Amino acid sequence: MAKYRFEQIAINSTEKKKPVEEDRFTYLGLEHLDSGSLKVTRFGSEVAPIGEKLVMHKGDVLFGKRRAYQKKVAIAPFDGIFSAHGMVLRPREDVIDKSFFPLFISSDYFLDAAIKISVGSLSPTINWRDLKTLEFELPDLATQRKLAETLWSINDTMEAYKKLISATDELVKSQFIEMFKSIQRDEYKTLKEVCTLITDGTHNPPKFKDSGIPFILVSNITGNVVTYDTPKYISEDDYNVLMKRTPIEKGDVLLSTVGSYGHPAIVTEDRPFAFQRHIAQLKPNRELLTSEFLHAAILSSVVQEQIEVLVLGVAQKTLNLSAIKQIQIPVPTIEEQKLFVTFVEQSDKSKFAAQSCSNLNLWSSSETLIVIQNTIRSKS
């Protein structure tokens, strides 16, 4: 396979415009891009975005250069404007096939190399002058087209599994309403009444290290679970100081409050970690509430509708602590909560199988690419 500099593979479009009122309908920010998916499912802004934005055209590949470890890549679904914290990329079709190009940009092979050249600590960013010099191996165009056909077929299957997961989630939400519809709204309790602690992460970030105790970001609350793969770590001394304010323990519920807000996750492991201010910590009163039921309640339409009313801000919506404390939920008996959780667990078993398929990397390294290439050639 031939080796190319990235500037030989891709064009970095830097055309910009100052948004006008109608541009708010076709605006895409990094908050609209989902890690692991090339498909855009939401877009737009309540008001015209502030500051110059990148001009995008339908079919362009959008890459989040800020906090690239979130691995946000998508295909522009229409003409519009894109966040200046991203890149608008187009293929050089003499080197890379246009149908293969978005698969390449979203691959771990490309993203892992790009992330390594990020600069900055709080909001690491990739600069084009560094990215353009990176070198990547690519097969010939004919092989790329065959690879793209195979990989897009796999991608379509993965998207079908994602739809199945979404349908399962909707079933759980419907069951929540059905099981607890007998509890009148004036009988609901606020989260302040059923939690012994509601706080958020540190407002004074400590000095970060390359290793140590994980410092969790909003991006670590994915699929309603906590992940510990983070670019930020802190020392044990800093951790001990932070834990005086936010004593985390197994069974607590974390809730994202900025950007991708309203997503809960249960702490299921006894392991040390700290978290940023954009994550709230809810410690349920175990005499009134199980962690699993609190998690399910937050995901329900009953709570999500309240959250949409309570969030503040325009450019970056925020769910603050005082708003979280006001959220009302039905509080059935512990026995009834456990019955509902059993239903959720059964649904989760179905989701697990689907997620195993939907979360597959299409290709994660140059070695994987070679294997697929050789497989296709052997069948030609």
- Strand composition percent: 15-25%
Helix tally equals 12
**Using DSSP, what is the number of strands?**
21
> What's the helical proportion of residues?
25-40%
CATH topology of the largest domain: Adenine-n6-DNA-methyltransferase TaqI, Chain A, domain 2
The protein's oligomeric status is single chain
**Overall tally of domains:** 3
CATH class of the largest domain: Alpha Beta
List the defining traits of the structure above.
four-stranded mixed beta sheet; Adenine-n6-DNA-methyltransferase TaqI, Chain A, domain 2; 380 residues; 3 domains; disordered C terminus; 21 strands; 12 helices
How would you describe the overall organization of this protein?
36% of the residues lie in helices and 19% in strands. The longest helix is centred in the middle third of the chain and has 39 residues, at 141-179. It starts with a strand and ends with a helix. A hairpin with an 8-residue loop joins strand 6 and strand 7 (73-75). Helix 5 runs antiparallel to helix 11 (334-358) and helix 5 crosses helix 12. A four-stranded antiparallel beta sheet has the order 2-9-6-7. The chain has three domains: 2-138, Adenine-n6-DNA-methyltransferase TaqI, Chain A, domain 2 (Alpha-Beta Complex), CATH 3.90.220; 139-174 and 337-380; 181-331, DNA methylase specificity domains (Adenine-n6-DNA-methyltransferase TaqI, Chain A, domain 2, Alpha-Beta Complex), CATH 3.90.220.20. The protein is α+β, with helices and mostly antiparallel strands and 380 residues long.
